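Most newcomers find our protein records easier to grasp once they have seen one. There is nothing in a record beyond a sequence line and a structure line. Getting from the letters to the tokens is the skill we practise here. An example says more than a description, so a record of this kind follows:
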Amino acid sequence: MNNIIDYSIGFTDGVEKGKPVFLERLASTTSDFLNMYIDSAARSNPQFLHHVYEWYQEGSPDARLFEIKFNVKGSNIMFTSQFKQSQSIANGAREPFYDKATIMENGGKLTIAPKNAQVLAFEVNGEEVFTPNPVTIKNPGGRVEGEFANIFDQFFSRYFSQSFLQASGLIRHLETPSEFSRRLAAGAKQGRSEGISAGYTWVTNAKVGVE
């Protein structure tokens, strides 16, 4: 009986020992799926997410202007995003719009002023316009303000809980510690050491992700 009690305590200790490994893998896999989720949404609705990709490459993993980062601390995982500068040049432009993702996502204005000339020259409805004054564009990316934040939140509020965790079988695995009962006979002989091994194996072998 004492060995079984020690086995049970050891199983709990093994789970705690393996938890950082499990959470790190869960965070990394979730980050990958979040990237793919945003790419898919951008291909389906480019008018809302074009600003977080290089010009004319909406949904391409190689053209992302965002980076998803995660931090595992204790039993918590925190996901954050950071925008990168654009390197591509839009049709009709001469220089990259470096901060396009940040400016468009935040709903910022864009002011264009002459740099190496006396006037600005651009087209409006097919007609060439010349002006010596700076030109301010209120919505340089269209109505895209906050759309990246929306799709980011949508992933965790809907897809993560309804599809990612359920379809992978992770919830079922965590609710059914089968490794405990499978190794109970060995635990009755070896006690705590067997429990630690069983608990560690159970939590670190949890399936993460959707096939």
Q: What stands out?
A: The two ends are 42 Å apart (CA to CA). Residues 81 and 142 are 22 Å apart (CA to CA).
